[in-house]
Amino acid sequence: MDVLDCIVIGGGPAGLSASLTLGRARRKIALFDDGTNRSRVTQASHGFITQDGIKPKEFKETALKELENYPTVSYFKETVTEIIKASANERFTVKSSTGKELVAEKIVLATGIHERFSIPKIREFYGKSLFSCPFCDGWEQRDKPLVVIAEKEEHILHLTKMVYNWSQDLVALTNGNPLSKEGQLELKKHDIKIITEKIKDLIGNDGYLEKIELENGESIKRSGGFVAPSYYRPNHFAEALGCELDEEGIVKTDHVGRTSQKNVYIAGETERSKPASIMISAAKGNKTAVSVITDIIMERF
Ligand SMILES: Cc1cc2nc3c(=O)[nH]c(=O)nc-3n(C[C@H](O)[C@H](O)[C@H](O)COP(=O)(O)OP(=O)(O)OC[C@H]3O[C@@H](n4cnc5c(N)ncnc54)[C@H](O)[C@@H]3O)c2cc1C
């Protein structure tokens, strides 16, 4: 079987950018992506200079089109189900959901992260009228009547203060969780309404929020807002390959994409298990690809 230089798993901004850099360095690679990128729920992505407001689908299509210029890059729209390493990490067999098996010398994990919401119904509004990142979507929500939903005190305080930069018509909802007197004072001095009552339901149309119903029967009209999900890596590839993790379960790296395991690299949001942006993920993909290429060149020279 032909041995590739590298297999990139995940074709979000991180994996696409890594693939471009690898292709331009004449590396024979395969890119796998199954279309579950985080931004697929949004109408438009903002803040990437020259691409401000681009549709996530268009971003991916343009990137894949650019990769076609590099004949050593192959793209597979498939889910990777398993990565098997040979002893001493010299070879990796990557298996996909269609039964494909490819072998490579190096692996880049760029599979992103997923959100977990304490109120599952948030997902119906997420990306259309509820968002998590004010830098991404604050401008479009500016001056609107917004809600901030977060359960932990540090999260509700931080997110509400941040969102206040874009709209001062704010209601902070803790969904039944307490908020300290000091915390309440901090928000109240800016006329922000704080509600610690449990949320019963979110009501709206086609992803656009109209009101929030509380357990006590009260309802609050809001056109959108910001939420604080928790995040997790969607697979255990890093664990299965033996990558060292820190006490929070984050993959340890040398900050330019190399993990503790020889020939296993990581890029994008999955690297820190934290949300970033398309620009930061793309930059991380580029950095990681540079590490892969440098290692290949030095090892073979
Ligand atoms: C509602 C919302 C709005 C946002 N708005 C903006 C914005 O305006 N501006 C901005 O800069 N950022 C925005 N973001 C954040 C942005 O989407 C992320 O920062 C970015 O997508 C992270 O890139 P990534 O490559 O690390 O991960 P992802 O984009 O999540 O890509 C990971 C890829 O890995 C693939 N994958 C996962 N597992 C497998 C597998 N087993 N086999 C094959 N493929 C696999 C997935 O299909 C996916 O395409 C937004 C996010 C959300 C949720």
From TrEMBL:
UniProt cross-references to PANTHER family, sorted A to Z: THIOREDOXIN REDUCTASE 1-RELATED-RELATED
GO molecular function: oxidoreductase activity
Keywords noted in UniProt: Flavoprotein, Oxidoreductase
Positions of transmembrane segments: none
Pfam families attached to this UniProt entry: Pyr_redox_2
Complexes and interactors: Homodimer.
Keyword Transmembrane helix: no
Protein name (database record): NAD(P)/FAD-dependent oxidoreductase
Domain FAD/NAD(P)-binding: 5-149, 179-281
Cofactor(s) essential for the protein: FAD
InterPro entries on file: FAD/NAD-bd_sf, FAD/NAD-binding_dom, Ferredoxin-NADP_redctase_2
Keyword Oxidoreductase: yes
SUPFAM superfamilies in the record: FAD/NAD(P)-binding domain
